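Is fe (ii) ion placement plausible here? Inputs below.
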Amino acid sequence: MWIYEKKLEYPVRVDTCNPTLAAMILEQFGGADGELSAGIRYLTQRWTMPTGQAKGILTDIGTEELAHWEIIGTIVYKLVKDAPINKIKGTPFEANYANRGKALFPQNAAGVPWTATFIQSKEDPIANLYEDMAAEQKARATYENLIKLSDDPGVNEALRFLREREVVHFQRFGETLEIIKDYQNRKKHY
Amino acid sequence: MDKKQLKLLNELMEIGFSLVETNLYLDTHPTDERALRLHNTLSAQYQELEMMYTDLYGPLKATSMSQFPWRYIEEPWPWDIEYCGCNY
Ligand SMILES: [Fe+2]
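Reply from A.M.:
I modeled the complex. Tokens:
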């Protein structure tokens, strides 16, 4: 089960009102390589993992991804919360506003809703871990694009923090891959 | 949120984040004694600080104790906090 902690993993500061940037950052809220995809992917892959170690790392990284999803939602919300209507008109955020105002929805920067087809889950642990490592690299690359698009210093600090976390996750999944390969080799020999 | 509360929350967030790091590291290095010692030290610090915060400002977790009336639902929620303009 999960217990919610009423705090963010990182103190999000947003210095500007920028609906266009908010719309772009939705890529990490509900996009294919975003934080929701990451969290649901890792947490869903847990059931058939062969070792306690692999079940643990998927649980804990999956849980951290949900905390990142909350950080991203907070950035998006803070970028639009004080925006008057004339600062929304003509921006890519206008389509969201037409439907739901300033409310958040798991969609990507182009407005495509989140779908489970963004992720995969296999009984084969090696296939899962390669997917997970690729996902971390894709998320890192997306963060680098967003950092280039953003000129909000506070937002950039948070995006850099999140980018760094993808690098750490990639490292931990890589270590897990080696541990699982060892485990499978040992099983073959006995 | 006043400065004192924000300062305590920021301290808690910092230690909480360090615990995420030691947690993930230990998941793939379970026999690293130094890392485990660090994790245990951070864990003790976190529990102490969380207890202090909860006493003053209400629960961060719905499983914690609260004064009357139930303080868990008090504003602000994490996404409404202004983290800027504070020295921590
Ligand atoms: Fe990640």
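Short version: Chain A is about 65% helix and 0% strand.
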